[in-house]
């Protein structure tokens, strides 16, 4: 569809004739195979594997890009010649699926992507403001949880001790040096040691460290910090419930609200990409952003 978008935008909107898509052919032949031209070429024509490894579309000169484009077109042509007979086997059932279902719907989805979906920018921004207020409230509740307060106090004392061990307060000779040292010491003493709940490195010792909640680590952590939702399933504690809610709201704001807002065009329309291939079940997927899970 990328090529069709370029043609529609810069050449003509009246697209006619038979459309072919080698990646779609591969998907119909084998939905479980990796659906990328690079992988298909490496499989069927290994002598051409990696023909685009040294290509950088932003910096490569024309004498590099032109041969690449030639090989790219040649590979598409060869793969089409290889795939069509395979699609026509067994009564051409897969060819009919490819031609009459998938390729017939390409222009419809192309039109949906081109026109986009109207979004009320004002309501979206208002929703972001409301969600941010709620997120701030949740963060305050997390920061003021008794165990978190005690953990922050221990952290502040550790930081103060480390400062005193690494700084010689008597080494300041001038008034300016003494004032600078005093300002650093005051900053360490007044530091509230607020936890960044979006940082796994800060949350993990709070959850599992002896100075924090000292929860048991999951048997099979998904990462070194073990702060994912699935890692916390074994924990039964009000803090866990509040923390999961905080992460959910933060993800909603960053991924969906702000993700949609930054993708709006000058007419406040959203142009996601609809993918007709790539799922083993054959269902259509959506990306940039994924509107199907909103």
Decide which structural class fits the backbone: mainly alpha
Describe the sheet with the most strands.
Answer: 2 strands, antiparallel
Helical content (DSSP H or I, runs of 4+): 55-70%
Q: Give the oligomeric state of the chains in this entry, treating copies of one chain as homo and distinct chains as hetero.
A: single chain
Low-confidence stretches: none
Task: Calculate the terminal CA-CA distance, rounded to whole Å.
Answer: 24 Å
β content, as a range? under 5%
Number of helix segments? 10
Overall mean pLDDT stands at: 88
Task: Encode the helix/strand succession as letters.
Answer: HHHHHEHHHHHEEE
> Reading side by side through the largest sheet, how are the strands ordered?
1-2
Strand segment count? 4
3D shape = elongated
Q: For the CA atoms, what is the radius of gyration?
A: 29 Å
What does this structure look like?
The strands form two sheets. The chain has a two-stranded antiparallel ribbon. A two-stranded antiparallel sheet has the order 3-4. The chain is elongated. It is built from ten helices and four strands, in the order αααααβαααααβββ. The protein is mostly helical and 294 residues long. Helix content is 59%, strand content 3%. Helix 4 packs across helix 5 and helix 6 runs antiparallel to helix 10.
Task: Write a brief structural summary.
This protein is 59% helix and 3% strand.
Strand and helix map with partners:
Blueprint: H1 2-10, H2 22-29, H3 37-44, H4 62-87, H5 89-115, E1 117-118, H6 121-143, H7 146-166, H8 175-190, H9 200-208, H10 238-263, E2 269-270, E3 273-275, E4 285-287
Helix pairs in contact: 2-4, 2-5, 4-5, 6-10
